Amino acid sequence: MNEPHEARSRSFIAALQVSLDGYVAGPEGELDWVDSWADSLALVGPVDAFVLGRGMFENGYEAYWDAALADPETASEMFGREPYPREVDYAQLAHATPHIVVSKTMNQAAWPNVRIARDVGEVGALKDQPGQSVYVVGGPGLVATLMNAGVIDELRLIVHPLILGGGTPLFGGIEQRRALELVAAKPGDGRVNLSYRVQAG
To answer: Within a domain: residue 88?
Structure first.
């Protein structure tokens, strides 16, 4: 009975940054409390595919990492500072790694390494293909959708010492109770990195 699960060789790992009270953005969409989006990737390890939703991809993802890689002046304006070396590293990896954007309406992307998936089933099919882990970039709506479908295997969080008091909840779209197994907890720079394994529903 367990053979189909055991045959799957790829893990889907969602890595996100969250406030202590469970929000990924403030009441007005504030993200100024996140030092670098590249930090989430450091929690994941080797990956050979990125998965994200259309909203995140089109609302700055392409432009953000394009600038970090090739346009330091624009990047400095966008980041409010010069890009960190780890952000340049992320941009290099992002440009070299296949991206799957989940969208029913998106038709094309400027990046040549982007494939559009129309539904969760297309994304879940990656589990049956050989390869390294798949990094689920987000946003939180996509993470909830993939968790509801049983696609997410691990959840890795950077918990910031900040109470936002409202905003976009990390788990706002979860439809059923989920048990998580804590596999690692590591403090650093006032934050705590938490790694959980998602238990079978």
So the answer is: no
What percentage of the chain carries pLDDT values higher than 90? Answer: 63
DSSP per residue, 29-80: ---TT-S-THHHHTTT-SEEEEEEEHHHIIIIIHHHHHHHHH-HHHHHHHHT
pLDDT(11) > 70: yes
Predicted model pTM: 0.89
Instruction: Say whether pLDDT at 33 is over 80.
Output: yes
* Any domain includes 179: yes
Range of the domain at 163: 3-56+96-198
- Answer whether residue 71 is part of any domain: no
133-138 β-sheet, strand order: 114-117, 99-102, 47-53, 133-138, 12-19, 154-160, 191-198, 180-188
Q: Does residue 184 sit within a domain?
A: yes
Domain count for the chain: 1
